Amino acid sequence: MPKQPVVTPRAQDFPRWYQDVIAKAELADNGPVRGTMVIRPYGWAIWERMQAAMDARIKAAGAENCYLPLFIPESYLSREAEHVEGFSPELAVVTHAGGKDLEEPVVVRPTSETVFGEFMAKWVTSHRDLPLLLNQWANVVRWEMRPRVFLRTSEFLWQEGHTAHATEADASAYARRILHEVYADFMRTELAMPVLAGRKTKRERFAGATNTMTLEAMMGDGKALQMGTSHELGQNFARAFDIGFTDVDQQRQLAWTTSWGTSTRMVGGLIMCHGDDAGLRIPPRLAATQALVTIVKSAPEVDSTAAQLVSELAAAGVRVRLDDRVDTPYGRRAVDAELKGIPVRVEVGPRDLADGQVTLVRRVPGSKEPVRVGEVAQQVVSALAADHQALYDEALQRRDAATVDAGSVDEAVDAAQTGWARLPWKLLGDEGEARIAGQGITVRCLVVPDADVEGGYRVPDTDDVAVEPELTAIVARAY
Amino acid sequence: MPKQPVVTPRAQDFPRWYQDVIAKAELADNGPVRGTMVIRPYGWAIWERMQAAMDARIKAAGAENCYLPLFIPESYLSREAEHVEGFSPELAVVTHAGGKDLEEPVVVRPTSETVFGEFMAKWVTSHRDLPLLLNQWANVVRWEMRPRVFLRTSEFLWQEGHTAHATEADASAYARRILHEVYADFMRTELAMPVLAGRKTKRERFAGATNTMTLEAMMGDGKALQMGTSHELGQNFARAFDIGFTDVDQQRQLAWTTSWGTSTRMVGGLIMCHGDDAGLRIPPRLAATQALVTIVKSAPEVDSTAAQLVSELAAAGVRVRLDDRVDTPYGRRAVDAELKGIPVRVEVGPRDLADGQVTLVRRVPGSKEPVRVGEVAQQVVSALAADHQALYDEALQRRDAATVDAGSVDEAVDAAQTGWARLPWKLLGDEGEARIAGQGITVRCLVVPDADVEGGYRVPDTDDVAVEPELTAIVARAY
Ligand SMILES: [Zn+2]
Ligand SMILES: [Zn+2]
């Protein structure tokens, strides 16, 4: 079937393509308050499956979920001056509640960091209470002047992890464990997204952190998106909130803490990484519906074969749905399934069936081939596995093809117009970084070549070229 | 082991017992803003498992999850006058955001009802779009003057379902399906709570509803708690938001809608229904940790047997954890496990083990008996099943014993001092209902005797004794 231009082509206007896909695939609408979003069932199913896959990994890493309040006394956010400086214009403040003006206004949480600080200080007294490994799934609010659905919204959903440890080494290892075993593994395995794990420069580091580690992905237009971060906070946070413990020698010590977060931004990243001019492409492992059995035209044998295929696919562990909306034209249903990026369709129609066949339509390669009825389940299972891998490989190849080894800052700036640049950190440095910022280009992360690591790079221990002379800066425009 | 008075005995001061259990079982703390709560990992695990069990049933009933924004324009809440009247003093209003005063203040959602109304009107155009079955898991805010953790908090977590149907019969059937197949089944099966399904009187009905159905449970002090409600909204909601559709004859029709909700209140209900003077008792099916294998005193054989039992129990499908905190006195760990209501403990100590035995401690019957090492898994599995049922039976017997058949309003008022009263609705009526309200006693629901229904009563179709002369009022004090 020839692809219809149901969405603006990416090459023509990428931001418009993004908006079109979100509207036509029924992912989300704008909310009635500017900057907020209504996440529709199809979009929510994506987030829900992301949450479940992440949550299982977070629990496997030993962290426990909890829930802190939406409202924070305004005074809490002036406790840590550096912090408020960063958030202040983003705060939404409740001044009126219970039918009267509040004596102390309350802030709608931009993060629960300060409340975690207060309660972690209460909950930790002895070295026996450590490590304390906490996570929260919640909505947070940061007022957004230039909102864009999923990427920058005044309210978004996220998880924030906060942990306290007895030693710096333990905190450091845990922050890395979250980065690699939870975040990177989830993004590569479930989202089929190649992410580069690196270290933020001082300029890009989270306020209060001694080290911010990041996972960066390349979008379809060559820009970067930060998919998640994991921070070592040293003893800064523990000092601000007095998170201390008595050690084995009955001496009081300050804890070492970490924090880490990912959000509904990842949904935007998924769209922009895998989508094409026909709409979304959902990685098969993530897809709530992996296979759609479509009745092209109803007939007794067609209906019974379709029902049988649904059972067989479900029995084979495939998340399958029946599309029997035969009063909607078939072409419209096909376009809708493509827009929604459903990995596989099994089209059952009277003509094919007369030959004992149905048609297997695969969203990722865009292929369409006859399959014998008895072989459908096996073919679908192998198509799902192959197409998940194909999405990953395609994204990786695109990233590699659009990443240039730059020999100078000017070359890097040129390369960042269409993709990423790699250049020695010693060629750029703090000053070079400040200069290219003026052109909307940032250092996404610092990495060190390491052939043993997926992607060929590892996260550096430092941003100091005297210690790690091979530090490489990844430079790009970013969302 | 003799029970220590670690919490205030229920008979002495039930509200104080409730607070003690919440604090000592580490379920929740008060948040920094009055009326808010910090749900600690042990409390959150309860809610998380409630959510999962409910969510599976909601999906099985065909509803899809979505997410609407936290912020609602103030103007939305004056659209439906009757509604604002009810909520107004409970609203929290953001007047300041993005570093300046907002032109139109935004309300922190007390419910997403108005936004559901707006978007359902957009999403429904044809009879093909019906039924539209939506659900949302979210936090909501209703400013609370006399807060009590889990029961009445300014912020709470809930699910709210909103559905639109082509016919009154379809809407009516769906509201009942949610009440019975989702809510009542979840509460009886997973929470081991006997709930009485009934119909609210006009006085207690949700504003805008044509029929409110409820599930009422008896707490340990004889008071009632409303565990969940399911509303038929007739065409009132559809009229207010213009939710219409073209029928098969191309005629425009108004939809028929329902809404239904349950919240973190259920956690409070669980505590007050099953808790005893030693603390919580978590129903085995709900418990995140069903069995705790406790090393009483470490020794090579003890440690290896404990590890082996953990594996065997996990293999038998039991959610099991190892307690090897041997530097904490054993008695303190036992009291903690009782407080937390962990259904079963397997105590492994050197003395028992010399005889090839361990000790099985069951929280519900309070029993403690030796078990041969090779029989642990099988014994634990059957203990969990038996004790879940025992909790249900005990709660049902308590409810039946504390429910009096009253022959007059005065008798009912007396009975409501310590439990529930049943009396013919025609003896009470609207006037009697208004009169007993002055003494803090309400009609929890109306029911009709029906021997074929669990609990011996069914939900009436009407509150009119002319139509259903056997209408019985359940009268009680309530949380
Ligand atoms: Zn106001
Ligand atoms: Zn302010």
UniProtKB/TrEMBL annotation, chains A, B:
Record domain Aminoacyl-transfer RNA synthetases class-II family profile: where: 34-283
Protein location: Cytoplasm
Main location: cytoplasm
Annotated CDD domains: ProRS_core_arch_euk
SUPFAM superfamilies: Class II aaRS ABD-related (SSF52954), Class II aaRS and biotin synthetases (SSF55681)
Cellular compartments per GO CC: aminoacyl-tRNA synthetase multienzyme complex; cytoplasm
Keywords, comma-separated and alphabetical: Aminoacyl-tRNA synthetase, ATP-binding, Cytoplasm, Ligase, Nucleotide-binding, Protein biosynthesis
Catalysed reaction equations from the record: tRNA(Pro) + L-proline + ATP = L-prolyl-tRNA(Pro) + AMP + diphosphate
EC number in record: 6.1.1.15
Gene Ontology molecular-function annotations: ATP binding; proline-tRNA ligase activity
Domain remarks in the Swiss-Prot or TrEMBL record: Consists of three domains: the N-terminal catalytic domain, the anticodon-binding domain and the C-terminal extension.
Subunit and partners: Homodimer.
NCBIfam families noted in UniProt: proS_fam_I (TIGR00408)
Similarity field: Belongs to the class-II aminoacyl-tRNA synthetase family. ProS type 3 subfamily.
PANTHER family linked: PROLINE--TRNA LIGASE, CHLOROPLASTIC_MITOCHONDRIAL, PROLYL-TRNA SYNTHETASE
Name of this chain's protein: Proline--tRNA ligase
Gene: proS
